[in-house]
Amino acid sequence: MSQKPIAFVTGGNRGIGLAIANTLLQDGFQVVIGSRSGASVPGFDCVAIDVTSTQSVDDAFTLIETSWGIPEVLVCNAGITKDALVLRMSDEDFEAVIDSNLTGAFRVAKRGTKGLLKIKKGRLIFIGSVVALLGSAGQVNYSASKSGLIGMARSFARELGSRGITANVIAPGFVETDMTAELGDKRRQEIAESIPLGRFSDATEIAEVVSFIASEKAAYITGAVIPVDGGLGMGH
């Protein structure tokens, strides 16, 4: 069993998730990365997890708990996009995004809470988005899934606060990732001009805020939505 506190990051094999995993590792956590493939990532313990399957989530947590111990920081970061204008968006594409981004986060947080209640402390950290409250054309499904995280996190916060468990949402804006790299130069410029700070964020800037919320410095913060968006959402 690990002597270090354990952090579990879903979707931690690339992008924002990997930046979070690296930062928590530097903070002294033993970091377990969860991904669909379960493929190894150098420097980390890794498990396979499909957040759309309750059985897969249970299996992943059972493996973590028996191999290393109870993870006391859970970062629900796994998610997908299936963008389309609303009249072209199929029920299947709407439901798939909700199932992965919202219900998937519920499955992970619910299963992880079993361990947190045993140790009477913990952090539930949900990776949301600035579009949760701003909305985004072509992202009805994604916006709805990220908005749902806010109500869910705040309900977890009320239910579990007396046990020393906090629940918060980090809401990134536009981040330099593989997904945003696919945007054309013109579109990237338009987006950057709409952001008061005039640029996309680096994934490490998201990770640093997760690091703070995972730390003892944030012990009295719960039910919060913390924007890391360069001013794009202005608190919405």
UniProtKB/TrEMBL annotation:
It comes from Candidatus Planktophila limnetica. GO terms for molecular function: oxidoreductase activity. It comes from the Bacteria. This is 3-oxoacyl-[acyl-carrier protein] reductase. The lineage of its organism: Bacteria, Bacillati, Actinomycetota, Actinomycetes, Candidatus Nanopelagicales. PANTHER family: 3-OXOACYL-(ACYL-CARRIER-PROTEIN) REDUCTASE, 3-OXOACYL-[ACYL-CARRIER-PROTEIN] REDUCTASE FABG. Residues 5-194 form the Ketoreductase domain. Belongs to the short-chain dehydrogenases/reductases (SDR) family. Keywords: Oxidoreductase. GO terms for biological process: monocarboxylic acid metabolic process.
